[in-house]
Design a protein that fits this description.
This protein is of the alpha/beta class. The protein is about 35% helix and about 25% strand. It has 3 helices and 4 strands, in the order βαβαβαβ. The protein has a 4-stranded parallel β-sheet, with helices on both faces. Helix 3 links the parallel strand 3 (about 80-85) and strand 4. The termini are far apart.
Length: about 110
């Protein structure tokens, strides 16, 4: 793990779907910022929020917790949350934890 803090990046492409692009590490250091970013995107009113994970280099249990919390919030709001382009390590982590069955993946 790196002591370097990678800031998340967000962009919105058109009205829907909203796209949140994350990069670097999703861990204890970045979890709060990523959580806020995802919650803001979910609350913005789009029917679909796509979370681009193609540039995520590391995710720990706290990062998974952030994704789970975002999925719960999205469901309560009637929003579809979709994880896009996860790298092999992220896919493996989601499969090992069984979260690939609860968090829709676009590969």
């Amino acid at each position: 793990m790196s002591a370097r803090r990678s800031a998340p990046l967000s962009s919105r492409a058109g009205s829907s779907p909203a796209v949140v692009r994350l990069y670097g590490e999703i861990d204890l250091n970045t979890g709060d910022a990523v959580r806020q970013l995802l919650m803001d995107a979910i609350d913005a009113g789009d029917s679909v929020v796509v979370v681009d994970l193609s540039r995520v280099t590391f995710c720990d249990a706290g990062g998974l917790g952030v994704l789970i919390a975002a999925q719960h919030r999205a469901r309560r709001r009637g929003v579809s949350l979709v994880l896009s382009s996860p790298g092999p390590q992220m896919v493996r982590l989601l499969e090992i934890t069984g979260l690939d069955r609860n968090l829709p993946l676009m590969r």
